[in-house]
Structures are given as C-alpha cells and as structure tokens.
Structure prediction request, 525 residues.
Amino acid sequence: MKKLRIEVNNDQETINNGFASRSNNTLSNVEEFIDNIIPFARKMMLKGMKSEILITINKLDDEYWEVTLEDNVEGVNSIPKDLLEIDSRKNGDSFESYYSFGIKQSSCALSKNGGSWKIYSRTEKMIKEGKFICVAGPYNLLRYEQYEYNVNKDVDENGNIIKWPGRFDVAGTIFKFKISKIILSKILSTHEKEYKGKIESNKQFVLFDEAEDFRIIRVLKEELGYIYEKYLLDDLLKISIVHRLKSYDVTPVSIEWESGKPFYENVEEHDLGAGIVRVGLKIGHIKNSENTIYRNKKDANNNGIVIIVNGRKMQSPLWIWKDKRDPHNHSFVIEVSLTSHDIQSLPAPLVDKTHLSSADEKYRSLIQYIRKKVPKPIRDDFNTKQVEKEAKQLLIVELSKQKSFVSSEYKLCSFLKEVYGSIDIREVTDKNNINFYELKIQQINRRTIEQILRYISLAKIEEEPVDKVILVGDYYSPSIEEYVELYNSKIGDVLIELKKWSSYNIDIDFIKDKHKNIKFENNTI
Prediction:
C-alpha cells in the first residue's frame, strides 16, 4: 500500500477568494448590505423613525478606493458569530435578507485583489458609555479579534485618539472597505455594452481618470434609485452618496408611462403554488426617460417584465415571449409587483437578485400566469410614414422661424451608381452655413451613424459644401453620444450633432399616438 500526502492551500487569501467567487457583481454586493437593513427599516418606520444609509466613496491612491456604508439602525454590542463562521447561515425574516448570499461573501467579493474590510457597530447604551466595537478581515478559519474601543480615551497604532468613524451621531453599524479600482469600476459592467472604458482581456472595466470618476457615482445613484424605488417612494429609507465632500441623494427612478399612465392596471390574488400572493400588474408603453443614463429607456435592456417582490426590484427585466425584441416593442413594459407576508409563497430570486430563479416552481407558475394574461408583447405600432411626414413638417416650420432656407428630400448622387443618398432636410442658415438633417422617429443607433458618414463622404465626392450634420431622434444611447464626441474631436471636419425632437418643442410620442395602428383595447387581457 502506498500513501500519498496531499497538501491543500487554505490560507486566508484562498478562503477570501472562495467566498468572493459567489458573486462577481459589485452592484449586487453593495445592495446586499442595504437588503440586510430593510427589515430593521420597517421596524423603525413603525416607531415613526426613518432609516438612513450613507455611502461614502473616497480615492485612497491610484489602485484603491475606500467605500463606507453606514446606517442608523440599532447597532450591536457584539458581532454575531453567524456573520463570521464559514459554515453558518442564518436566514433573515424578510424577502430581502432571506434570499441573500450573505455579508461574508459580499465582504470578500468587495475586498478581493488586495483589499480589506472592517465592521464597526454600537448600540444606544454603548454611546452613553462612550464605546464601540470593531472586527476586521480578511476572513480567518479559526478566530477573530473583536476590539472594544473607548472613545476619546484609547489610541490607535499611530498614537491618534480613537473616535467613532461614522457621520451619524446615533446607534448603527458601519461597513468599511478598501476596494481595488477594478472591483469598484465593475459597477459599470451592469451596462457593459453601453459604457465607454478600457476593457482588459478578462472583460473587467478599469477606472477612468480622476476627472471622470463621477461616472461611477452617477451609475450607482441611478441603479440604487431603480432597485429601491418603492422603498424610497414609501419613505421607508433614505440613501445618500458622498463623494469629494459633495452629497448626492438617491431619488426614485420610476417608469414614465405614455399618456401619463399604463393602459392596464390591476391587483388580484393568485396562488403560485405555495400560498396566496397579491399580484399587481401595470401594462403599457413607456416614455424614453430624459432623467436617466440607462434605466427606463426604450431599448432591449429595459423592455419586458419588471419584477418587484415585496417592494424590492430585480436588476434585469425578463423577456418571456417567442417574439423577438425589436424597435416596435422596445417601449413595452409589464410591471409585476408581488406581495406576501409569507416568504415561502413568493418565487425565489437568484442569490444576487438580478433575476428570479427559473428553477423555482413558483417562478414557472408566475410566467404561465403572465403569458395567459399577455400571450404576446403589445407592439407600439404606428403609421411610420405619417409620423415621419408630420414630424418633418413641424421641424421645417421650426427651422423656418430661424430665417433658414430649407429644402426637403435633398438628393446626393454619385457617379458611382451604387452609391447614393437622400438627405431629409438641407438647411442654409442666415449666416450661410449649410446643415444636413437626418431624422429618426425612433432611436439613433450605430446604423444611423454609418448612414450619415456615407452621406458626408458623398458630399465630399460631389464637392457639396456642408458644415454640420444634425441627427434628430427620439433617443440615443451614451455610447452613441460618446462616439460622436470622439468623432468631432478627432476627425470631424464636418461636425455631427445629436438632437432630440423635444429640443425643437416637438412631442414625437404625441404624434406616434395619433397615428397608432394597434390600440390596446384590441388585445385580450
């Protein structure tokens, strides 16, 4: 018999990385801490008190940032063992905390790549005694050292007087992280296809220069406003982000429905297989939000079924129909709000709460219920030619007010027969500048850019003078905006300008609604 000893590497970094592998979604890891506060926020609301969460983000150096999440709910006088033990899991008593991957995993994920974490807490009694506790990571297999500090008496290793590290002058808990710039910038990967940035071979974003780091703040603010919209609207909690000494309140990111409301709205009770659940449905076409970077836009990332469970929204909308997503259903949204005091009666989400779990029978029952209500997506169909014609006429009127000479359907033809173009509007301004207008009643996208670049080339071939090409559309993505900015700075001898119909006081949604081919009443609910 031959005996072989196998050495296993179980150092702190290995343990930390093992926990971190549960979730690579930085946004979900931040949300994990907020989710764990929600049950306490509900209790505080019953007492007439409002919970607050303060997220502070500061740059330490070129490689690391400090991110702090601080709350004002209760606090503890000793860090619970189940928060630290490897094989311990204590499910919470709310949907948000019951279905979670835990503080352990989130702490490890956020402190990966050489980062660290600390937890501070204090109760009202400890405040009176001038004390608070602290536990620090990375995770240890055997033991932790919990420090109890005496405020304004004890000193740290540098000889500085110990003070409470938070901003709230009440009981509460602080989670403080040293986060690598790669991990922090993955907040942007929620919208990876849309965001400008350098992407390494491992497809992780690298932070932009310091002048542009506000992008992360903007995306984080919008995402938290989207996920916790209902809680913010109900005044259950307040979330603020502090960066470079400036505070940003997280505000609700709500759907703006065409005509001001959904065209179907109902609440009914339904058994998904484990007990009665209140199901609220709002069905309609949405406006393209002017107040967001990504959320609630008329595109394939925002249409479909938006799931809200006990007030907590899932990160990504679902698409459950065979019909493919196309521009005519990009504005179609079903907001499904599920409510129950019995957590077991609700469909389970994935641990990072990006979606509901398709392995759950209750999820499949919900999808069947929705399909029965809405067998196919309701297209935002309208008479395209009529809308284009009316919108163009209104724009010509607006341009004429500016003393411009305007001609419609201006032809560009080349000696190469296969290359030709037709400009929607050619404008000669009162200053003799020549502008081409390309009009889109839907989205300005990559193909639109390719089209007008071809027009610019044709104009050069024919020695047709043009100073600017103006693209007018219903909406466009940040990536298009950034490409145009790059083109104008690097190449643009003929400038490209992006405009929305609203810039000319033209309500394109009103015109579309006027020329709709399909009305909702013809669909069966």
Notes: Confidence is low (pLDDT under 50) at residues 192-211, 414-419.
